[in-house]
Amino acid sequence: MSTATATVAAPTQRVLSIDILRGITVAFMILVNDPGNGNVSYWPLEHAEWNGWTPTDLVFPTFLFLVGCSIVFSVGSRLKHGVPRRRIAWQVTKRSFWILVINFAMRLLPDFKNLHHIRLYGVLPRIAFVYFCASMLYLVSQRVRNLVIAIVVLLVGYYAMLRFIPIPGVGMPGRDFPFMDQYNNLTAYIDRGFNAWTQTHLHTGYLYEKYRDPEGWLSTLPAIGTSLLGVLAGKLIRSEEPAKTVRTWLFAGGAAGIALGYLWNIWFPINKNMWTSSYVLLSAGIAGILLGGCYWIYDVSQRQKSSHVVRVLSWPWLVFGSNAITAYVMSSVWEKLLGLIRIHDGSHILSPLGWLNKYGFEHWGATANSSLAYAIFYVVLCFLPVWALWRRGIFLRV
What we know:
The protein is mostly helical. The protein has one domain. The protein has 13 helices and 4 strands. It has helices at 16-33, 59-80, 85-108, 123-140, 144-164, 186-201, 220-238, 243-264, 277-304, 308-322, 324-338, 352-361, 368-391; strands at residues 2-5, 343-344, 349-350, 394-397. The strands form 2 sheets. The chain has a two-stranded antiparallel sheet. The chain has a two-stranded antiparallel sheet with strand order 2-3. Helix 2 packs parallel to helix 4 and helix 3 packs antiparallel against helix 4 (123-140). The longest helix has 28 residues, at 277-304. The protein starts with a strand and ends with a strand.
């Protein structure tokens, strides 16, 4: 980890729309991951069970889309200043490695001896692998045509593998069993095989779900496509095109992504669990439209005429977005550290957060409202240390 210190005003020299949308995304990610009662919630705050999507299913791909946008500015600026590609590749490798280290440290906290039951997949590992692969592809070529070819190969290739590669002992998808079956699909087969290998040879590992993992190996390929679509958006923002042209192309590209996603949905259903190619196009399209709106509000209109209302509304998201990984890590650290404190209420042993939820938010019953209220409280709790870093001009960069 390295610490970049700057004045509080420094982030205004950045592309505000990327930081703000990233902040909104991370806050929403914490909101849906930490409900007071996991059994009672509003449907927009839950994942789709299989095919289809909810607003919650857009959170992670939006973050990866913004990772791609950021690659253009971080890697592109180094290339512009003459930094050797080999050195940039080494920096990208180190950052990816440290994201993995942070992930496993979070998993093992507070018992670092518990190595026999640890999930090797997850949000941070996917971010690390997608960031690494997208950055390397961008280092190889910054030409739009080559990036588009890479996206097409990833998305079409992923569909072809799932549709036409038979699963050993099961048969051919669409002929011997339904295509996109929850249990019998190539991604789940690879996840189960890799998990069996790690349990045998490394004596660790488990899947998020019994037969598959939503952040498994094969579905990382289309996730790289998500980030590369963000690279295209970042190149557009970084170009010398007029602001109105940038906004128009972000909106038009987003609308095209949504339309193509729904068209492909006919043959390859939109599915977050398998990160299908139609899901990539849909989620990137929505992310592009959201980025276009933020770009016009915060990077164009705000700089043309400073609006106090706009600054106030953007402030919490800018704080979250400036230290996004730190905010996400805090969502796990708070729960685990406070879980070390035990409170006896006469019939149960609770953590401070469990006690607060039971006797505070759920005092009148476990409802969707109480679950949402607790989740909002937890977002604020994670915001506080990030705000403290912001006030001191400290931005943690992995």
